[in-house]
Structures are given as structure tokens and as C-alpha cells.
Please model this.
Amino acid sequence: MELHVVSHPLVDHKLTVLRDKNTPSATFRELVTEIVMLEAYEATRDILVEDKPIETPVAPMVGKQLAAPRPIIVPILRAGLGMLDGMAKMIPTAEVGFLGMKRDEETLNIITYANRLPDNLSGRHVFLVDPMLATGGTMIDAIHYLAERGAREITCIDILAAPEGLKRLEQEVDPSINFKVVVAAVDDHLNEKAYIVPGLGDAGDRLYGVV
Ligand code: URA
Model:
């Protein structure tokens, strides 16, 4: 597993406001968009491009454009939706799929309750977005789900990660799968309720209110 922690003063500043419990939802949503746009710069570093001949007002030249097939952005519902806007701004030609996953409270297995994705992801670069990489369980299942459908490369983008979740990803994702993780910060630990500490609380609730 390749881990990139986007270390930048602007990210650190925005993250501090994001974490503050007094930051209202509207500001929280804007900050998530801004942080994911800054993370996208790192996350897309190895996105495939191809030559594109154009003419500027002065001379012909060969520029670059994103290569086919188009990348896909996949937010994990519900909190991942908060990161969609920023990613879609950075890669406006990307397709968007959706993955709804939750833990069955009885069996503790992860169940996929919503899936809006092409069946065949062959050759596609998938950007899987979810703000909080806590236990890692959902992310591990999502990575396997996408890889089984042929994704060529999977880049997970989170705002915060816990060391416990990162360790599980390293140990439990099939080593033949090509994936990397981009985060704005790695926090200290998970508490007994599986919240990231110091974290930012429940990302879904802070984005959309308590349901
Ligand atoms: N999900 C959240 O929204 N927050 C956490 O701290 C952990 C998981």
C-alpha cells in the first residue's frame, strides 16, 4: 500500500477549522470541498494522459489530455458525498458512481445496500472517496468490490485516517490489487466507539445533520 499524507500549511489550516466543534455545517461542507481539491492534486499525480494536438493563437503544439477510459469518482454513501463536489471540480470529465455500504449490526459483515456503478470497470482508474478511514472495514470491502469488477487502479482519498485502519488495509487488502491512500492527516488512535481521536466527530452528521 502506498500512503500519501498531504502535508501543506493550507491543508493544516483548513483541517484545524474543520475539526473545531464550533464550525457550522455550511463552513464544514465548504472546507471539505477545498481540502479534497488540494488532496486531488496529489491523488491524481499518476493519472494517465495522452497527447492532444491543438493550435494556440500563436502556434500548433502537442498538449496533454486525460486518457480514455474516463476515471470514475466513487463516493461511499453517506459521508463520501461531501467530497464529490471537490473531486468533480478537479476532474470534470470523470464519471461518478455510488457505493452504499454499512455494517450489519448482527453479523458485523459489511453489506452493500446501494450500487450505481458500471459492471465492468476494466482499465478504469477509480477514485474512492470517504472522509474518515477509521476501522478500515468499509474501505477494504469497497476496494475488493471495485477490483473484482476490473478496476485497473484504485486511489482512496480520505480527510483523516486512524493508524488502526491503515494497518488493516495493509494487512487485509489482497496484495495483487494496485491501490494507494491519500489523506490530509493521520490521527492518533480510534476510541472504543471507533471514532478517530482527535478527529472531527461524525463526518456525516457534521456535513448533513443528525438523521
Ligand atoms: N466515522 C466518522 O464519521 N467519524 C469517525 O471518527 C470515525 C468514523
Q: What stands out?
A: The radius of gyration is 18 Å. The CA atoms of residues 160 and 210 lie 20 Å apart. Helices lie at 9-19, 25-43, 84-90, 137-148, 163-172, 203-208.
